[in-house]
Structure formats: structure tokens, C-alpha cells
């Protein structure tokens, strides 16, 4: 038992280290550790495709194009896109914390590329060369390659002449075990490496969607095989949240950055007027160091955010007030419990002066990213949605459990 706990903590620590390592550029990619895991994932993906064909909804009830997302253990949310003609398929993480699209190129020989789909230029009739060097540098390594141009499709929409990066080297990074092949950035254009126009902006300028708005519903307890959530293009689907959206202006159109009124743990004030970003590419909540220190002290947590605990019911909500409205996250969502050991899913990284609201937050609150009006809208997710397709979820719990078991090895 103790050994198993240690491994899980090591796994969590691995994610944290990665989050810390890449924080300088804020391209955060939560990944899994086991080198053997990718192979079993492929089995899961095969199962998922089967189910997805049955349950695929191309449009929301109110008519917006919709891309179905997969969810592994509430850590990685990703979807299926195609590049080229005929289509070459890739799983990408839709990341609001970066602004470039990249996938592995066929000339990539890094280990991370071997286990993932790669793009073959020669097999696409719509491919156009660009060749400009592309590189995203992380603390301990880099992803680099060159730019190419081709058709990119998802949610039933095809963007013509999208510039993207074909990665030829994934060095010193932990993409090897990532579920996804690449990343599709949905941050603002100013963040884009090489000044490439992001996919969503091209979607709008090519008239594929009328409203320059997209939204994320990250389903809690969704799964790899079964409906992990939705990325909706062109608007929001009110059936996925309760009440109305609370809007807040983006204070700097690079990341999706907004100002919070206050952040509390129960009634204890942690901060007022702190800035935060909504980032689908991060799984945790990251707090500035001073705020994190206060929170850790409240729980008597050690430097890694762990503490002894009995029942999560005895801990207060995390309360984030945005534009006068309180958004509450119950302890069971921001604390991970393993028997008598608890770990905060709120962490801190060095030289970070704003909060990063990852999936721990976004999984509780449906989020509308309004590009046109440069604002964000939040509303509690409709909890009834979690109950949809429960039977299927149970069937595939076993499949997931097998994957989990390998993961903890
Ligand atoms: C992506 O979607 C296509 C078309 O539905 C399918 O053939 C392919 O297997 C999917 N890829 C993955 C990895 O799910
Ligand atoms: C895409 O690129 C091709 C080849 O460069 C060009 O002929 C076509 O007009 C472009 N289409 C759009 C929508 O930009
Ligand atoms: C390559 O793409 C970049 C970014 O879109 C653009 O600035 C540059 O002009 C392109 N170069 C060529 C040779 O097409
Ligand atoms: C998700 O699963 C966890 C653990 O099984 C459970 O405690 C939690 O209530 C579930 N959440 C929802 C919304 O079903």
C-alpha cells in the first residue's frame, strides 16, 4: 500500500516537475510516465473509436459545430484532427495556454515520435512547403522542426492553408508517454511562435464559423473511450452548464488572462485582485508562491503539498470570486486523497505571478472563450451531464483500470 502511494505521488510529482520545467514559456503538457503505457493506450483508442462512431455528435443541440474530447483520468483532454488530403489523423491537446499547432513530422527520429502519428508530406495533395524553423524551448529541452502548410480539419470544419509545425526533434521532453501526438494552441496570436496565424483565427477569417467564440466542457469522470468533454466552436451550449455565464474581460490578450476579485479557502482570504489564466493545457491549479505558501500552511502540507488526512468532507471549498460571482470548488476536487495521505492539486512554480486555472478549475466550470469580445464566460457545469452514458462508462472502467495499473508500475 505504502509503495503504491509512493508511486502515485511520484507520478504526481513528475507532472509537477514538468509543469515547473516548462513554466518559463508556459507551454505546459501534462504527461504520463510509463514508457510501456503507449502501447496499451492504442488498444484503448481502438475501443474508443468504435464507441465514438456510435455516439459522435457533430453539432450541439443549438447548432454549433462540436469536437468531441477524450479524457484520461481528468489529466489529459484531447481530440482528433486531420491534416492533409486525404486526411492524416492526429490526437491533439487543445491548449488555450499556447498558440501554435504542431505534430510530429515523418523525418522525426526522436523516441517520442516513434510512438505517435507522424505527418507524411508526400501523401498529401494539399501540402505546401514553408520551411521556416520552428522551436519551442522548455527548461530542459525543446520541440523543434519547421513550418508547413496544409488543410486542417476538426469538428467537421476544414481550414485551408493552415501553417503548422512539423516537429523533427522532441528533445529532453516528456512527450514520449503523452496520449496526444501534438498540440493545437488556442491562445491569442501574439503568443504564436514565428508569427503563425492560429487555427481558430483562420477558421473565423475563412468564414467557417460566424461567431469568433469557442468553449470547453471538460467532463469530470469522462474517459478515453467515452465522451471526455466537448470543445464547441462558434458559441456555447447552455445545456452543458447551469445558470448564465459570468463574463470577465481578458486583461491581456496573449494568454486567456483575467482578474479575480478574491480567492479564499473557506473563509480564509488568500488573495484579492490576483490575475489568473484559463488554461486547458494544465491539469492543476497553479498559485503564485506567496499564495501557495498560505494555502499549504492552512493544511499543514509539506513542500510537495502533501499532508495526512482522514475525510475530505471536513475541508472547506476553494472559493474564487470572479466579477462578483463566487465559483466554489469542493475539497474532493482540489485535494487528491490516497488513503490517509492527501495531496493538494493546487501547486506553485517559480517566478509565477498569476494563477493558472487548469482542469481542476475548468472541469468544474464550463468556459466560454470569446475571442471577438476578448472576454471569458464561466458557469458551473451541468452535473446531470456526468450521468449520461453511465453504463458505457462502467464497461470501459476495466479497460482504463488496466491502463492505470501499468501507469503505476
Ligand atoms: C480519428 O478519426 C478518424 C475518422 O473518424 C478515424 O478513422 C481515426 O481512427 C481516428 N483516430 C484516432 C486516433 O482516434
Ligand atoms: C491555398 O494555397 C493554394 C496554393 O498556394 C492557393 O492556390 C489557394 O488560393 C490558397 N487558398 C486559400 C483559401 O488561401
Ligand atoms: C512561412 O510562414 C510564416 C508564418 O506564417 C510566414 O511569415 C513566412 O512568410 C512563410 N514563409 C514562406 C517561405 O512561405
Ligand atoms: C468522479 O469519481 C470520483 C471517484 O470515483 C467520485 O468521488 C466523484 O464523485 C465523481 N464525480 C462525478 C461528478 O461523478
UniProtKB/TrEMBL annotation:
SS bonds (residue pairs): 108-113, 309-342
Molecular function GO labels: aspartic-type endopeptidase activity
GO cellular component: lysosome
Peptidase A1 domain segment(s): 77-379
Signal peptide (residue range): 1-24
GO terms (BP aspect): proteolysis
Residue numbers annotated as active site: 95, 279
Keywords: Aspartyl protease, Disulfide bond, Hydrolase, Protease, Signal
InterPro entries per record: Aspartic_peptidase_A1, Aspartic_peptidase_AS, PEPTIDASE_A1, Peptidase_aspartic_dom_sf
Pfam family, one: Asp
Keyword Disulfide bond listed: yes
Family the UniProt entry places it in: Belongs to the peptidase A1 family.
Protein name in UniProt: Lysosomal aspartic protease
Organism annotation: Drosophila suzukii (Spotted-wing drosophila fruit fly)
Gene that encodes the chain: Pgcl
Amino acid at each position: 500500500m505504502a509503495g503504491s502511494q509512493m508511486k502515485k505521488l511520484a507520478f504526481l510529482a513528475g507532472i509537477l516537475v514538468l509543469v515547473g520545467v516548462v513554466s518559463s514559456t508556459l507551454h505546459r503538457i501534462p504527461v504520463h510516465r510509463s514508457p510501456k503505457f503507449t502501447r496499451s493506450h492504442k488498444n484503448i483508442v481502438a475501443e474508443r473509436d468504435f464507441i465514438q462512431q456510435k455516439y459522435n455528435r457533430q453539432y450541439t443541440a443549438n447548432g454549433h459545430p462540436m469536437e468531441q474530447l477524450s479524457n484520461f483520468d481528468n489529466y489529459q483532454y484531447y481530440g482528433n484532427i486531420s491534416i492533409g488530403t486525404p486526411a492524416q489523423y492526429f490526437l491533439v491537446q487543445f491548449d488555450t495556454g499556447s498558440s501554435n499547432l504542431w505534430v510530429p513530422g515523418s523525418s522525426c527520429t526522436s523516441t517520442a515520435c516513434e510512438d505517435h502519428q507522424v505527418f507524411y508530406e508526400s501523401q498529401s495533395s494539399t501540402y505546401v512547403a514553408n520551411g521556416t524553423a520552428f522551436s519551442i524551448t522548455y527548461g530542459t529541452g525543446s520541440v523543434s522542426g519547421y513550418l508547413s502548410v496544409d488543410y486542417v480539419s476538426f469538428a467537421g470544419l476544414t481550414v485551408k492553408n493552415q501553417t503548422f509545425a512539423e516537429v523533427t526533434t522532441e528533445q529532453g521532453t516528456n512527450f514520449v508517454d503523452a496520449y496526444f501526438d501534438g498540440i493545437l494552441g488556442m491562445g491569442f496570436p501574439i503568443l504564436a511562435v514565428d508569427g503563425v496565424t492560429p487555427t481558430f483565427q483562420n477558421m473565423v477569417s475563412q468564414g467557417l464559423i460566424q461567431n469568433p467564440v469557442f468553449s470547453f466542457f471538460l467532463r469530470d469522470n469522462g474517459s478515453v473511450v467515452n465522451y471526455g468533454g466537448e470543445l464547441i466552436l462558434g458559441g456555447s451550449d447552455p445545456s452543458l452548464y447551469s445558470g448564465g455565464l459570468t463574463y470577465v474581460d481578458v486583461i491581456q490578450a496573449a494568454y486567456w488572462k483575467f482578474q479575480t476579485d478574491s480567492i479564499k479557502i473557506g473563509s480564509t482570504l488568500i488573495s484579492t485582485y490576483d490575475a489568473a489564466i484559463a488554461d486547458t493545457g494544465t491539469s492543476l491549479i497553479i498559485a503564485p508562491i506567496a499564495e501557495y505558501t498560505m494555502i499549504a500552511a492552512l493544511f499543514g502540507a509539506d513542500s510537495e503539498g502533501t499532508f495526512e488526512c482522514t475525510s475530505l468532507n471536513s475541508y472547506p471549498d476553494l472559493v474564487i470570486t470572479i466579477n462578483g460571482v463566487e465559483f466554489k470548488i469542493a475539497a474532493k476536487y482540489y485535494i487528491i486523497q490516497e488513503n490517509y495521505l492527501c495531496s493538494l492539486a493546487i501547486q506553485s512554480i517559480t517566478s509565477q505571478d498569476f494563477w493558472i486555472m487548469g482542469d481542476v478549475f475548468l472541469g468544474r466550470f464550463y468556459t466560454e472563450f470569446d475571442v471577438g469580445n476578448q472576454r471569458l464566460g464561466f458557469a458551473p457545469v451541468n452535473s446531470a451531464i456526468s450521468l449520461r452514458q453511465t453504463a458505457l462508462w462502467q464497461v470501459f472502467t476495466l479497460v482504463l483500470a488496466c491502463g492505470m495499473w501499468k501507469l503505476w508500475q
